[in-house]
Design goal:
The complex is a heterodimer of chains A (about 450) and B (about 270). Chain A is α/β, with parallel strands linked by helices. Chain A is about 50% helix and about 15% strand. Chain B is mainly alpha-helical and about 270 residues long. The longest helix of chain B is centred in the C-terminal third of the chain and has 35 residues, at about 240-270. Classes of the chains: A alpha/beta (about 450), B mainly alpha (about 270). Chain A: It is found in: Cell envelope.
C-alpha cells in the first residue's frame, strides 16, 4: 500500500512538473519580444550571411534580393540568400517546424494574418527596439489598414505586398447590353445588373472561385457590416443575421443561374469561365490584376476594376491581404541587426514600387505612389487607382493562429451550402458550431 | 445464345465506361499540355487540338531548373529502391523463416508502422534530421522510407509460400543463408519484388509532402516540387503546368509498361495460394 502511495506520489510529481514546465514555456511564448533588445548594424570585415525564406511571387522577390546584394548588401557586407518555400500555407508549416528544430531563417515572408500566431509562439521578434535604434520612421507605411503588422501595440512585421478583393467587370459586355461599364455600385444594383446580362446572353454572368475565405470576408463586411469572427476571436459570426442574408443572396443568385461557384479544384474551369467574353463579373484579388488583364486581352474584351459593391446604408469593408516580412527569433545580435537593414531596404519606397508594378499587388508606402514607376504603372493600369481608393475601407483580417483551420473548414462547407436546398440558417449554425470548436479549443 | 449476347454487350459497355472514367483525366491532362492558352480557356471546351503545341514542353523545361529536379528525383528514387531491397529482403526472410524470441511482437510493430500517417511523424523526423545536420540532404529523403512495413509484409508472405523441403535440401547441400536467399528465394519472388519496386518507384517519384516539408533549399528538391513551382510562377497558364506534369509522369508510364506482366503475376500467384 505504501509502495503504491509512493508510486502515485512520484507519478503526481512528474505530472505536476510537466504542467508547471509547460505553463512556464507557454507563458514565455505569450510574452514574445517583451524584453527584446537590439543593436544598430555596424559594418564589419566579414560578410554577414542572412537566410530569407520567400513565398508567393518568387521571381520578384528573387530580383529584389539580387538588387540588395548588388547594392546596399555589398556596401554593408551583408549577403542575403533567398529560398522559395511554397505558398503561404506551406511556408507557415515550414516555419513552425523550423522553429521547433531551431533551423529558422533570419527573415521570412508570411501571409498578413499569421502575425499574431508567429508572435505568440515566439517565432518572430518585436521590431520596436530595432526601429528605435535605427530611428526608423513608420509613418510612410500608412496605406490601408496596418493592424496586421501589430500585436498589441508593438510592430512585429513590415508590410511587403498588399492586396484587396475587387470586382472585375467586363466593360465590353456591359456596354453592349446597356449597363454602366463601371460596374454595380451596390448589392441591390448587382442583382439587376446580372439579370440584364443574363437575359441578353443566356449565360451565367458571374463566377466565383470558392477557394478563398478572404473574398467572403469582404462580401460579409460590405453586404451587412459583419466580421467573420467576434472581436475577441472566440466565436464566429458566420451564422449571424447578416451572414445568413449574404449567403441567401448568393444562393438565390446560384439558383437563378446568375452566379456559379467553382470549388478549389476547378481552377481551370474558373479561368475558362472568366475568359469567356460573355462573362460579366467576378470578385477576386487585385494581386491577380495583370493575369486577368492577360485573359481579357486574349478573349478580346476590355476589363475594368471596380470596388466591391456597398451594402445597405453604404456599408463597405475589405480585408487587407498579401504578405508581411518577419524577422525570426534566431541568430546573433549582429545577424538580427543585419536582417533589419535588409528588411528596411526591402520595404523602402523604390522596392515597394518595384514589387507593386511587377505583380499587381499594391505598394506598401505612400511615397511609392509618387515614384515615376508607380505613376507610369497607374496610368497604364487604372485598376490600381480603384484598389488604392478602396484601401480607405480596408480592415484587418482575423489574427488568431488557428484561422487557417477555420478557413479550410468554411471553404469546404460553404460550397455545399450555396448549392444544396437545405435551410441556410441551419447549415450555417452547424458550420458555426464546428468553427467555434476550433476557436475555443 | 441470344441470352448471353446482351450480357457480353453489357460487360463490354461497362468495361468501356470504366476505361473512359479512368482515362478521361489523363486524356484531359495530355490534351491541355498540347493546347494554346486560348484553347485551354475556350468555351465550350475543346476535346481536341488543332496543332500540337510542343513549345509548352520547352517552356516547362526552361522555366524551372528541370534537369536539376529530375536528377534529384532519380537519385532519391533509386536510393530508396536499392536501400529498401537491402533492408526489406533480409527482414522479410527472417520473419518468414526464422523462429526467434519476440518475433510476433516485432512483426506486429512492423505492421503498426503502416497505420501511422506520415503527417504525424514528419515533425519529429524533421527535428531529428535538423539536430544531426542532415536537412537538405539526400539521406533525409531516402533513409526514412527504406524500412517499409508494407514491403516487409508482402515479401514475407511470398517467402512463406516457398516449400520447406526446398530450403532443407539447400541446407543439406551446405548452402549459406545468403545463397538460399539469392538463388532460391529471390528468383521465386520476382513478381512480388517487381510489384514492390514499382509501388516504391511511383510513391517516391510522386512524393510531394515529404520533399516539401523536409527541405528548405532547392538543393535536393524533387520534380513534383519543381512542377508545383512552375504552377506558382506561371500563374494562370495551365497548359505549361500540364506539360510539366506530363514530363513528370512519363518515367512512371515507361516503368509500368515493363513491370506490368510481373505485377499481374504477383497478384495471381498470391491468389492461388
Amino acid at each position: 500500500m505504501t509502495n503504491q502511495w509512493n508510486h502515485m506520489k512520484k507519478k503526481f510529481a512528474v505530472v505536476l512538473t510537466a504542467v508547471v514546465g509547460t505553463t512556464v514555456i507557454l507563458s514565455g511564448c505569450g510574452q514574445a519580444g517583451a524584453n527584446e533588445s537590439a543593436v544598430k548594424y555596424t559594418k564589419g570585415d566579414k560578410v554577414v550571411e542572412i537566410k530569407f525564406w520567400t513565398s508567393a511571387m518568387e521571381q520578384v522577390n528573387k530580383d529584389l534580393v539580387d538588387q540588395f546584394n548588388k547594392t546596399k548588401g555589398a556596401e554593408l557586407n551583408i549577403h542575403v540568400s533567398a529560398e522559395y518555400q511554397g505558398d503561404y500555407s506551406e511556408i507557415q508549416q515550414k516555419v513552425n517546424a523550423a522553429a521547433i528544430a531551431n533551423t529558422l531563417p533570419n527573415a521570412f515572408i508570411g501571409e498578413v494574418s499569421q502575425t499574431k500566431g508567429f508572435a505568440d509562439s515566439n517565432t518572430i521578434v518585436d521590431l520596436e527596439p530595432f526601429m528605435k535604434v535605427n530611428d526608423f520612421n513608420r509613418d510612410d507605411f500608412k496605406i490601408g489598414d496596418l493592424d496586421n503588422l501589430y500585436v498589441d501595440k508593438d510592430m512585429y512585421a513590415f508590410p511587403h505586398m498588399r492586396s484587396l478583393p475587387v470586382m472585375y467587370v467586363n466593360k465590353t459586355l456591359a456596354k453592349k447590353v446597356g449597363l454602366n461599364e463601371n460596374g454595380p455600385a451596390t448589392f441591390d444594383e448587382l442583382e439587376s445588373y446580372m439579370e440584364t446580362a443574363y437575359k441578353a446572353t443566356g449565360k451565367t454572368p458571374m463566377y466565383l472561385l470558392n477557394n478563398d475565405l478572404w473574398i467572403l470576408e469582404a462580401l460579409l463586411s460590405s453586404y451587412s457590416n459583419t466580421n467573420m469572427l467576434n472581436d475577441e476571436e472566440t466565436a464566429t459570426n458566420i451564422n449571424s443575421k447578416g451572414a445568413v442574408e449574404l449567403i441567401s443572396f448568393l444562393r438565390d443568385g446560384v439558383s437563378k443561374g446568375l452566379i456559379k461557384v467553382f470549388n478549389p479544384t476547378q481552377l481551370n474551369d474558373f479561368v475558362g469561365a472568366v475568359s469567356d467574353p460573355d462573362t460579366l463579373l467576378t470578385f477576386s484579388s487585385i494581386g491577380g490584376y495583370k493575369i486577368f488583364l492577360g485573359l481579357a486581352a486574349k478573349s478580346k474584351y476590355e476589363l475594368g476594376v471596380a470596388m466591391i459593391p456597398e451594402g445597405k446604408g453604404g456599408t463597405r469593408g475589405v480585408p487587407v491581404g498579401g504578405s508581411n516580412v518577419y524577422m525570426s527569433n534566431t541568430g546573433t545580435e549582429e545577424e538580427k541587426a543585419a536582417t533589419f537593414e535588409f528588411m528596411e531596404w526591402l520595404s523602402d519606397t523604390e522596392q515597394a514600387a518595384y514589387a507593386s508594378a511587377n505583380t499587381g499587388y499594391l505598394p506598401t508606402r505612400l511615397s511609392s505612389l509618387d515614384t515615376d514607376l508607380m505613376k507610369k504603372t497607374m496610368a497604364e493600369f487604372p485598376g490600381y487607382k480603384v484598389a488604392i481608393d478602396e484601401l480607405k475601407f480596408s480592415k484587418k483580417r482575423p489574427t488568431t493562429g488557428v484561422y487557417h483551420e477555420v478557413e479550410t473548414l468554411v471553404v469546404s462547407r460553404l460550397g455545399d451550402i450555396l448549392t444544396d436546398n437545405k435551410d441556410v440558417q441551419q447549415g450555417l449554425d452547424a458550420l458555426a458550431k464546428d468553427v467555434n470548436a476550433i476557436l475555443t479549443r | 445464345m441470344w441470352l448471353r449476347l446482351p450480357k457480353v454487350t453489357i460487360r463490354l459497355l461497362l468495361s468501356v465506361l470504366l476505361i473512359i472514367i479512368f482515362l478521361a483525366p489523363f486524356y484531359w491532362m495530355l490534351l491541355t499540355a498540347f493546347k494554346t492558352l486560348d484553347e485551354v480557356v475556350a468555351v465550350p471546351p475543346k476535346f481536341w487540338v488543332d496543332k500540337l503545341q510542343w513549345v509548352n514542353f520547352k517552356d516547362a523545361f526552361t522555366r524551372i531548373n528541370f534537369l536539376h529536379y529530375t536528377k534529384n528525383s532519380i537519385i532519391i528514387t533509386l536510393g530508396t529502391l536499392v536501400g529498401q531491397m537491402l533492408v526489406v529482403v533480409p527482414a522479410a526472410y527472417a520473419f518468414a523463416r526464422y523462429q526467434f524470441k519476440g518475433k510476433s511482437l516485432l512483426f506486429g510493430l512492423v505492421l503498426a508502422t503502416m497505420m501511422v500517417p506520415g503527417q504525424l511523424i514528419f515533425l519529429p523526423v524533421f527535428v531529428m534530421f535538423a539536430n544531426v545536420g542532415l536537412l537538405n540532404t539526400y539521406v533525409s529523403l531516402i533513409v526514412p522510407f527504406i524500412a517499409s512495413g508494407m514491403a516487409i509484409f508482402m515479401l514475407r508472405q511470398t517467402f512463406m509460400q516457398v516449400p520447406d523441403s526446398i530450403l532443407e535440401a539447400a541446407r543439406l547441400d551446405n548452402s549459406s543463408e545468403w545463397k538460399i536467399i539469392r538463388t532460391i528465394m529471390l528468383p521465386m519472388a520476382v513478381p512480388t519484388l517487381s510489384t514492390l519496386a514499382l509501388l516504391t518507384f511511383i510513391g517516391t517519384w510522386n512524393s510531394y509532402f515529404f520533399p516539401l516539408v523536409w527541405t528548405t533549399t532547392d538543393a535536393v528538391r524533387t520534380l513534383p516540387l519543381g512542377v508545383k513551382k512552375l504552377q506558382d510562377s506561371e500563374g494562370l497558364n495551365p497548359h505549361i503546368v500540364m506539360a510539366g506534369n506530363m514530363m513528370l509522369i512519363l518515367p512512371i508510364l515507361i516503368v509500368f509498361m515493363f513491370a506490368r506482366k510481373h505485377i499481374i503475376k504477383a497478384f495471381t500467384y498470391s491468389g492461388v495460394k
